[in-house]
Amino acid sequence: xxxxxxxxxxxxxxxxxxxxxxxxxxxxxxxxxxxxxxxxxxxxxxxxxxxxxxxxxxxxxxxxxxxxxxxxxxxxxxxxxxxxxxxxxxxxxxxxxxxxxxxxxxxxxxxxxxxxxxxxxxxxxxxxxxxxxxxxxxxxxxxxxxxxxxxxxxxxxxxxxxxxxxxxxxxxxxxxxxxxxxxxxxxxxxxxxxxxxxxxxxxxxxxxxxxxxxxxxxxxxxxxxxxxxxxxxxxxxxxxxxxxxxxxxxxxxxxxxxxxxxxxxxxxxxxxxxxxxxxxxxxxxxxxxxxxxxxxxxxxxxxxxxxxxxxxxxxxxxxxxxxxxxxxxxxxxxxxxxxxxxxxxxxxxxxxxxxx
Length: 356
Known about the structure:
Elements: H1 3-36, H2 38-54, H3 61-65, E1 70-74, E2 81-87, E3 94-101, E4 126-129, E5 132-138, E6 142-149, E7 157-165, H4 170-190, E8 216-217, E9 240-243, E10 252-258, E11 264-271, H5 273-281, E12 291-296, E13 305-311, H6 327-345, E14 351-353
Antiparallel strand pairs: 1-2, 2-3, 3-7, 4-5, 5-6, 6-7, 8-9, 9-10, 10-11, 11-13, 12-13, 12-14
């Protein structure tokens, strides 16, 4: 064997040895990263970055889920974007964010919010506040819904839903509010929808109508029931009210007229923009309930507002707190409520309509 051949052979041996050492080192590094949790942390962080088509806002996630070790999964379900976020271990909570255009159908299951208007205070929605066109709902789990109208795109809004699963409190609900609103703001920018958004949320209340202490005399109405203050509602068997603060940005407003036994007897609702469209798509709450409807054209909404009054049913007593439905009283109450709402929002004339 020549000297040249010996050198070539040695070079081959050395190259193979170096390659083997490199593979071994890389394997050791990977094992260390995996064993220390660094890989899991990187993977989870990447899942959050990519969640909801890259629009998921992390602000509020830790508060909502009670943990900073979080992992996201895509969950669009045929909508514009969607994701499901949960703690890697521990709290048992999870957050689902769903994004859609108002021109598309509402997500499966959302119709429940518009089919329960007759059922006590189940269909209530509290205004989100801080300039956000959104509401807070509860039906066993918390949901926050925000509808951001796109400027220069008449009738189109970006709608965001945030659902919180698992035991929660005011801190968690405020976190959900931050995640939902800031994701909506971020998504609007990504998809070319110029919006007027609210201020960063600092508090979302868990208070709900129907709880002890939420009934007050009709004469003290000053929020969503203010229009009913000078009506003969007390003579009609409902001397009390339950209301939320008046909010000109909320896509839903509700007021409840309450009996002397503190049971809600009539429910009044106003739906605007995307909420009005969804309420209409859900069949105006269904045809089998005593109710009266009205509509009005509102500026920039893209869909006429819908107002409704319902004869309420009480599941606890399996009866109607107001035994006899008065269509004439319902029409007068709705006229006062809807007229006040329309004037406050700059809408046109209110038209009482026949049920579909």
